[in-house]
User: Fold this.
Amino acid sequence: MRNCDHNTVEYSVDSFIQSLQLLSVTEPCSLCGKVHPLKLHSCVDRSYRDPKSMEDVWIKIPVRYCRRAKALGLQSTKRILPDFLIPFARMRLDNVVDAERERADGSTVEKCCRIMGCIDLRTVRMHLKRLEEAAKAVALILAERQAAAVHLHETDEILRPLAPLERLEKLLDRQSEGQLRAGDGRCRPVTLRSLLQAEQWKKKRKPLTSYASRPPPDA
Ligand SMILES: [Zn+2]
Assistant:
């Protein structure tokens, strides 16, 4: 999965909604926990920093609505973030992952700045640190899960000296192999970014910036 060219994720709100509709056939609703067709409330503005232009790019992201959650008195709408974004932050997760890989290969923080499209060294270091923490946390969960199912996973390989992100990627590969061994073809393979993003959502009470309150330039 390691790539020298940085793979920037192409995004369109229509294809994102289509993939969410497909997922809603098997995946439980994030608001009520039941499997049911996706219902959208609206689409809202969201921005990210584009490293090439060094400017903010505005996109639309969907907001889910759940009637069941509303009837139960629970939160009934929720923004759905594509997996290349970080909750409450302008930097793109795919760019931060690329930057972290470069850093693990010995690149300077300045190069990481260029990859992320950020001129503030402190912000870049903070994002790299948060990514490393998220990678460690997710790797720990996967390692424990795999240790509890030794019959499904090769455990002779030593992963400890690896950088956290690389270690997590190896554990993810091992997880997918384990799923195949278990004959669980129905299981959707989890992706690196979706796991890292989910881990960063857990910390959403501590927003990275005051970002979410910023309106789009033409609003
Ligand atoms: Zn629901």
User: Anything to note?
Assistant: The chain has seven helices and three strands. The helical segments are 13-23, 67-71, 93-104, 109-116, 121-147, 164-181, 192-202. The radius of gyration is 19 Å.
